[in-house]
Amino acid sequence: MKTIRSIFSVLLTAAVMTLSACGGGSNDVKLTLSVQPTTMSFEAAAASSTATITSNTSWTATPGADWISVSPSSGSGNGEVKISVNANTGNMRSAIVTIAAKGVTSKQVSVTQMSAGEASLVPISSEADGKKRSSTTYQLLVYSFCDSNGDGIGDFAGITSKMDYFDALGVTGLWLSPIHPSSSYHAYDVTDYYSVNPLYGTEADFKAMIDAAHAHGIEIYLDYVLNHSGKDNLWFKQALADASSPYRDYYFISSKPSSDYSKFPMLTGTKYNAGEWKQATSASATLTIKKTDEAESTGNSNWNLWFWQEGKEGKALKFKDNGDGTYSLVKKISGNCGMLVRKYLNWDAGSKYGAAGNGTIKEGEALTLAADGYNINFTGNGSNYRIELANVSGAETIYYMGCFSDWMPDLNYGDLSTCETYPSFIDIAASADKWINMGVDGLRLDAVKHICGGISSWNNASNKTFLKKWYDHCNATYKAAGHSGDMFMVGEVFNEYNDSGAPYKTYLEALPSVFDFSFWWRLSEALNKYNGSSFVSNLAAQEKVYDEAGGIASLKLSNHDEDRTGEVLDKSAAKEKQAAAILLTAPGKPFIYQGEELGYYGSKGGGDEYVRTPMNWNGGAWADGQLSGKIVSELKGKAYSVDAQDSDANSILKVYKDFSGVRNTYPAMAEGSMTACSFAESAIAAWYMSDSAGNRMLVVHNVSNATKTIKVSDDMSKPVAVLGSGTVSSGNLTLFANSSVVFKLY
Ligand SMILES: [Ca+2]
Ligand SMILES: [Ca+2]
Questions:
Q1: Does pLDDT of 2 surpass 60?
Q2: Which residue ranges does the chain devote to CATH 2.60.40.10?
Q3: Which of 145, 286, 318, 719 is the most buried (most CB within 10 A)?
Q4: What is the pLDDT at residue 241?
Q5: How far is the CA of 623 from the centre of ligand 1 (A)?
Q6: DSSP 8-class letter at 267
Q7: Ligand nearest to the CA of 400
Q8: From CA 365, how far away is CA 670, in angstroms rounded?
Q9: Which of the ligands is closest to the CA of residue 161?
Q10: Which residues lie across from 411 on neighbouring strands?
Q11: pTM, to two decimals
């Protein structure tokens, strides 16, 4: 969970919108020019291939060598250019075809042709036996994945309907965004851990989804949020309302947090940060307004109504103490008025009570007051109204810890040495038991480094203690449910793997797996800076941490909290394909995030929603009902749809399927261990993968934008997967830009 609500970004968006609305002439049309594909490779014989041009202006196509010809050499708007090469009798050669238009950056098609003596890399016949050996997992957002009933919201039945898609992608696990009821679209503020979000379907729909997944050899992992609940969780409401409620111990609640902080055992070793504590009012004081025949009246208690009517000056009216815990006054109200409740008529913090949000109070309906709340609005029709204040006996300003936001109060699990006996632990663990007993196979744990502590300060050792107890509890339930192996559980430690602030090593002593954020950060650098060798040495160092801890590296490209892979890689299809090939040839447990396989892009700048755009199945309706219009609408086009990419041999989706297929075919790829290879060429990232029987595969990626040749002493006669293109000739391996190959060495 990384939630930062930035007013700045809202302002920035507004500013940009204003500029585009006012600036520039309405006659300006943005000129566009693009060409696909951007690389072409040919055998030595004369041949030709077609490039597709997408444009709204006139353009020219110019070959950069005399052995290449183009037809036509100019055009206007969308069109096609046939690129032909003469037969090659010499060495391998490369040149560029430039597509140019006035007022737009030129585009290039890089053309390479092999020499007569070279053999191009062509995969051997597939040895797939239909088995899924890899633990590849698909991360999906329930709300925006697939909508089965046309209400615009993704649902369980929608997921159930896509099992064939998961099979084709070769995945054996699904990580679902939180399935519980919540007050937000993303659902990381859970209001009831024991039920499913009714927007997604019924519990029976959820169970049917689990059963369908299991029938396809696919496990279900739930996203479990242990650091905080939602503000609308009944636990929290009761905790706030009543100081003697047993739920008060579920949270960090205090009237003086700065001095009480050290009294919470779970916060030992972390630092108090006033900004992580939010104000609330204990006891749910309420205000009710009802028409009455009584005459206007006030009283003489300490409680005041600060009242003002449109066009008139405000004044303080004293409530009468009714002696039964309620306070009241009668006032004639004509038209719009506003009011606030004040204890001891002064302006000190903590003396003012108002509405929690939109402050309109309806006649006859009790409004729960919030400490330091907003103006309460009411419209009267000239009658007398009885204004009654109730439940104020214990009203006091209190604070609760909500390190991510005021709507996500942090959960308190008591003294960690015995937290498994603490009521909140027992409660939330019982909810997890329910889902494990229903068939859930694993959990993804949100924000684990912030559990013991907050955003600014946390305690890794305490987190480890808590997580170990949590894991042991869930794993015992899992085994009691009849499973022979251990339960899968992966923690989100948003950090570099070796950062002393929260080293993965510590968390792997409690959990079977953590997400390897370093993997994607290093990989995106490698692809953008053309450096493969440093990526491999980093990967080997990361692997060592998992090996020593006996842990599983959960690998990923971007996820729902980060700018999209396509965004980070400048929307380069070649780089996105290679990112997929590297993810699926690396050691560990790969996760594919919804939409990455279609080449999605999007940046968090305008809101997290922009990296959570719905799946585009066929270019038609998609599950965008929860995203407030904050979607990358360009991704709705047919080109990005699953349907279109399924029938395109050059699509990103095809690369995901091919490399996932190879990973599932060969045990060394599915579950093997890696040994880094080093070559003199820094653009090359290469490693061996070995299975337990000693069978080896050689993985080679050229992450640069240029052709690279390396000497390879291994047998290169059995390529099993090829991305892009390359050649093999007497111990030399040539890989063109952003090309990859996997050789079977046995
Ligand atoms: Ca739906
Ligand atoms: Ca916490």
A1: no
A2: 33-117
A3: 145
A4: 76
A5: 8
A6: G
A7: 2
A8: 61
A9: 1
A10: 251
A11: 0.77
Domain with CATH 2.60.40.1180 in the chain: 671-744
Q: What pLDDT does residue 246 have?
A: 94
| Distance from Cα 273 to the centre of ligand 2, integer Å | 12
Where does the pLDDT of residue 324 fall: very low under 50, low under 70, confident under 90, or very high at 90 and above? Answer: confident
Ligand 1 centroid from CA 647, angstroms: 27
| Residue 283 CA to ligand 1 centre (angstroms) | 38
Distance 451 CA to ligand 2 centre (A): 4
Q: Show Cβ contacts of residue 377 under 8 Å, excluding neighbours closer than 6 positions.
A: 336, 337, 338, 359, 360, 361
pLDDT at 7: 37
Q: How confident is the model at residue 569 (pLDDT cuts 50, 70, 90)?
A: very high
CATH match for 284-393 among 1.10.10, 2.60.40, 1.10.3470, 1.20.120: 2.60.40
**492 has catalytic annotation:** yes
Residue with tokens 């110019």: 62
Given 155, 492, 562, 596, which residue is catalytic? Answer: 492
CATH topology of domain 671-744: Immunoglobulin-like (2.60.40)
Q: Where in the chain is the domain with CATH 3.20.20.80?
A: 137-229+411-665
Say whether pLDDT at 393 is over 80.
no
Report CA(628)–ligand 2 centroid distance (Å).
29
The verdict on whether 671 is a catalytic residue reads no
Q: What is the pLDDT of residue 625?
A: 97
Which burial class, exposed, middle or buried, applies to 362 when counting CB atoms under 10 A from its CB (0-12, 13-18, 19+)?
Answer: exposed
Catalytic residue among 189, 223, 388, 446: 446
Supply the pLDDT for residue 29: 78
Q: Classify residue 368 as exposed, middle or buried by CB count within 10 Å of its CB (0-12, 13-18, 19+).
A: middle
pLDDT in tens, 501-549: 999 999 999 999 999 999 999 999 999 999 999 999 999 999 999 999 9
> Peptide bond before 63: cis, by omega within 30 degrees of 0?
no
Residue 233 CA, ligand 1 centroid: distance in Å: 24
Strands 552-556, 589-593: parallel, antiparallel or unpaired by DSSP?
A: parallel
Query: Which bound ligand lies closest to the C-alpha atom of 404?
Result: 2
**Which one is the CATH code of 33-117: 3.60.10.10, 2.60.40.10, 3.40.50.2300, 1.10.510.10?**
2.60.40.10
Residues with CB under 5 A from ligand 1 (ion): 147, 149, 151, 153, 155
The verdict on domain 137-229+411-665 having CATH code 3.20.20.80 is yes
Q: pLDDT band for position 90 (50/70/90)?
A: confident
Dist CA 717 CA 744 (whole Å): 8
